[in-house]
């Protein structure tokens, strides 16, 4: 059996992890307390119908990732969806979605640690932020495709049934946010999340109006 600190014939450290080890570590990192507690809460609230909710949620993620994949293949960039929102919608959109995504992970970490009183508030807030992130990705893909068509760029990886399926995703996300907003149990969480998004958007608009600073070259001595 190979040890994790195995050495090669020259006495140097060699790779001890195999693909199955990396796979199991990845699965263990994904499955956390939030998954089990969240699943239990959803099953208790919806019963067997929770399977439909998971199906549509998974389908939504697949479609959004397809949109993100189209933009990534057409315009590779290290900034991911915040950069595409910046390019397709405006600097304020990239600023807003970047900070919202940061806030999303700030909420996810306590969800992994807490399973009591604050859990429902954090769960609803993080879910609303995730939907807002998906909404911006869908709108960015819609506008980015139009920009690519104007530039006569040939796309090798495309969204299915464009633009109809993209519009369906946008309508579905807006409907889901609307349902969460009118539901008494989640009204406070969603309204506070939307308020936070509007506040960050305002800061983003103010920031976008400021001219970009161009670094001056250092004088050569």
Keywords:
single chain, 221 residues, mainly alpha, 8 helices, 0% strand, disordered N terminus
Task: Note down, in words, how this protein is organized.
With 221 residues, the protein is mainly alpha-helical. The chain contains eight helices and no strands. It has helices at 19-30, 33-46, 50-74, 80-88, 91-113, 119-150, 164-182, 187-209. The longest helix has 32 residues, at 119-150. It is globular.
Strands, helices and their partners?
Elements: H1 19-30, H2 33-46, H3 50-74, H4 80-88, H5 91-113, H6 119-150, H7 164-182, H8 187-209
Helix pairs in contact: 3-6, 4-5, 4-6, 5-6, 5-8, 6-7, 6-8, 7-8
Short description:
This protein has 221 residues and is mostly helical. It has helices spanning 19-30, 33-46, 50-74, 80-88, 91-113, 119-150, 164-182, 187-209.
Main structural class: mainly alpha
Share of residues in strands: under 5%
- Low-confidence runs (pLDDT<50, min 5 residues)? 1-5
Quaternary structure? single chain
Q: What's the alpha carbon Rg, rounded to whole Å?
A: 22 Å
Inertia-based shape: globular
- Portion of residues within helices: over 70%
Largest sheet: none
Order of helices and strands: HHHHHHHH
How far the N terminus sits from the C terminus, by CA atoms, comes to: 61 Å
User: Mean of the pLDDT scores?
Assistant: 78
Number of helices: 8
Total number of beta strands? 0
């Amino acid at each position: 059996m190979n040890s994790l600190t195995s050495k090669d014939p020259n006495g140097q450290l060699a790779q001890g992890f195999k693909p199955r080890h990396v796979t199991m570590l990845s699965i263990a990192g994904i499955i956390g307390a939030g998954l089990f507690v969240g699943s239990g809460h959803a099953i208790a609230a919806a019963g067997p119908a929770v399977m439909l909710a998971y199906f549509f949620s998974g389908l939504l993620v697949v479609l959004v990732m397809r949109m993100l994949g189209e933009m990534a293949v057409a315009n590779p960039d290290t900034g991911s969806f915040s950069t595409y929102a910046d390019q397709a919608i405006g600097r304020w959109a990239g600023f807003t979605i970047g900070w919202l995504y940061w806030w999303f992970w700030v909420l996810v970490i306590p969800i992994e640690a807490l399973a009591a009183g604050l859990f429902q508030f954090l769960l609803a807030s993080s879910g609303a932020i995730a939907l807002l992130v998906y909404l911006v990705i869908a709108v960015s893909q819609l506008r980015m495709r139009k920009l690519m068509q104007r530039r006569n760029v040939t796309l090798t990886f495309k969204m299915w049934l464009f633009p109809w399926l993209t519009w369906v995703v946008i309508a579905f996300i807006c409907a889901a946010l609307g349902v969460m907003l009118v539901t008494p149990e989640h009204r406070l969480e969603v309204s506070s999340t939307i308020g936070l998004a509007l506040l960050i958007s305002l800061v983003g608009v103010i920031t976008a109006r400021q001219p970009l600073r161009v670094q001056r070259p250092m004088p050569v001595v």
